[in-house]
Amino acid sequence: MKVVVLDNDRMMRDLLAMALQMQQLEVLPAGTVEEAEAVLPEAQALLMDFHLGGGQDGAAVARRWASEGRLPPFWLVTGTPDDPAVQGLRELGQLQEVVGKPFSLLRLAGDVQRSLAPFAVERLPEPLAPEPLTAGGPSPAPAEEHFPPNPGPRMELEADDQHGRGPDSDE
After folding, report:
1. Where is 129: in which H helix or E strand?
2. Could you tell me which of 12, 6, 96 has the C-alpha nearest to residue 54?
3. Strands (E), the chain
4. Strand partners, 47
5. CA distance 74 to 107
6. pTM of the complete model
7. What is the residue-level pLDDT of the chain in tens, covering all 171 positions?
8. Burial class (CB in 10 A: 0-12, 13-18, 19+), 140
């Protein structure tokens, strides 16, 4: 499943992308609305920041995309969850959650993955064409086993500001 991550803060965008990739989701990173619009047709979901820089905000962008019929299910990340513009987005059926900072990156990525799981189509390996067996010829090679990738050790990452620093940061 493909998720557009729209955030003008590169560090936050990279952290969100890493957390989503740990959930086996494909990330389409976008630093601007224009970049997001270029890849949006490929995506099944959107994770976007409210404050996008350059005078743009996620609420206005979400409303425009909804009116154009191209807004996928989305999560809005913001340090100002009580902003009236944010609250007004609750009427959009595509809004999955308003995520207030600070938040757990891994919890959010898990929520996105769980929400998209019912729509995922498992891709099975292509069947191998059988090779004809001849008397005295080599025996067929055993079928290759497929194991799911190891997600690695679990860890909690938290982000609480626009630069992705956690609450215990020295900065």
Report:
1. none
2. 6
3. 2-6, 26-30, 45-49, 51-53, 56-57, 74-78, 95-100, 103-104, 158-159
4. 5, 75
5. 15
6. 0.70
7. 999 999 999 999 999 999 999 999 999 999 999 999 999 999 999 999 999 998 899 999 999 999 999 999 999 999 999 999 998 898 999 999 999 999 999 999 999 999 988 876 554 455 555 555 455 555 555 544 444 454 544 444 455 555 544 545 444
8. exposed
